[in-house]
Amino acid sequence: MENRTHTADVAAGETATVAGWVHEIRDLGGIAFLILRDRTGKLQIKFEKDEMDEDLVETGLDVHRESVVTVTGAVEEEPRAPTGLEMVPDSLDVLAGADPELPLDPSGKVDAELPTRLDNRTLDLRKPEVKAIFEIRSEILRSVREYFRSVGSTEINTPKIVATGTEGGTELFPITYFGQEAFMNQSPQLFKQLMVGSGLERVFEIGPIFRAEEHNTPRHLNEATMIDFESAFVDHHEAMDVCEGTLKAAYEGVAENCAEELELLGYDDFAVPEDDFPRLTYEEAIERVNATGELDEQLVWGDDLPTEAEKALGSDVGGHYFITDWPSEIKPFYIQDYDDDPQLSKGFDLMHPRMELVSGGQREHRYDELVAGFEQQGLDPEQFDYYTRMFRYGMPPHAGWAYGVERLVMTMLDLDNIREAVLFPRDRQRLSP
Ligand code: ATP
Ligand code: MG
């Protein structure tokens, strides 16, 4: 629409054409108001029944809520209107009517359960506070991309249909690829590693991952968006520096560019993490968990951190932190072990007090060690020949990591459920829409 003005941009004394949804109709008898809503806000349209064309009044006041209309009229100052402005319509067209019964109420007066909201995401996202989550998500991705570019990283896109998984046959969704078994990729891990040995050296990818995890939790999806980073000639500590920088850049971007959205969501004290994130070794982490006395059973060296341990440690530390130097056993085979202590790996996790956000590490770039790792993991290196072969042609030392975008949004905005941070979640119960 060429001559459309957004409601936020209309000015008193001008004639304008606005377009949007009928948010509400308030009929007070001789006078009635239609509240029109667009993505920038709302505008009050005034109908003075005795002074206006009968057809216009009828069309304007008989239209159902959430219908799409366009209205042209003079904009006037009106201190009693919510925005201090109102429009006196000359014409009103209904572009798309809405049924009188709606599956959920976009004005938010009637609360809907999450499944109803997800079934009707279009209507759900007409609510400003739901829309705000996705504006913030978009800003996070923008700032993250900008940060990656500022540290010399190239954006790549790798295949999502693959012949073999990253860590073997578990947790993969099988598909049929021209009569051959294939899978939806669970991580760009192997592809991004192949790229650090290419002319690109330092890469990032933002894309979907697919995991056939059976569990149904508030922080797992079966399709998620991952932010992956991998760089040649860095060790795990330098990779953690970039990881920390990315996270801070995301918070800064949101603080700078999403003030309105944060206000809508009720964050008047949104804080950008400023201090360096503590880097606890795994050993320090389990000692600290045990010292909280929060767990029924003390952790011993070699245990993975159960959810309760993550929570106890999170509230003890009180902010983002890294856990480094994990036992090799519980980290994937492509993570490098310390030469002087092969029980210990150069893997790390970035934790938010509520949950794990990132896993990463220094990778094994030496061919013989890599192949041995596959075998120790019970995987057939032959199947991964496309990957291991490149380690015979000059693969530099490298490190990297991966975030879940939804977990970043969820922890940043303190959402209860990861499904709030994705438009159309895929989980055990949900394949449509
Ligand atoms: P968790 O132990 O919490 O299930 P993970 O260790 O299996 O996660 P990684 O393979 O380390 O996950 O993936 C890197 C990051 O991707 C995680 O730290 C998390 O932020 C995100 N992620 C992984 N799996 C999921 C999932 N099923 N749903 C949403 N995000 C996920
Ligand atoms: Mg992990």
How are strands sequenced across the largest beta sheet?
6-10-11-18-17-16-13-12
CATH homologous superfamily (4th level) name of the largest domain: Bira Bifunctional Protein, Domain 2
Tell me the β content: 25-35%
The fold-level CATH name of the largest domain is BirA Bifunctional Protein, domain 2
How would you briefly describe this protein structure?
The chain has helices at 54-62, 114-119, 121-124, 128-150, 189-196, 236-257, 259-264, 282-292, 307-317, 367-376, 385-388, 405-412; strands at residues 15-27, 31-38, 41-48, 68-77, 85-96, 154-155, 161-162, 173-177, 180-184, 202-210, 223-232, 279-281, 321-324, 337-338, 341-345, 347-352, 355-362, 398-404.
Describe this structure in words.
This is Aspartate--tRNA(Asp/Asn) ligase. Strand 1 (15-27) and strand 2 (31-38) form a beta hairpin. This protein folds into two domains: 7-96, Nucleic acid-binding proteins (OB fold (Dihydrolipoamide Acetyltransferase, E2P), Beta Barrel); 122-277 and 319-421, BirA Bifunctional Protein, domain 2. The chain is of the alpha+beta class and 433 residues long. The longest helix is centred in the first third of the chain and has 23 residues, at 128-150. The chain has twelve helices and 18 strands. The protein has helices at 54-62, 114-119, 121-124, 128-150, 189-196, 236-257, 259-264, 282-292, 307-317, 367-376, 385-388, 405-412, and strands spanning 15-27, 31-38, 41-48, 68-77, 85-96, 154-155, 161-162, 173-177, 180-184, 202-210, 223-232, 279-281, 321-324, 337-338, 341-345, 347-352, 355-362, 398-404. It binds adenosine-5'-triphosphate and magnesium ion (MG).
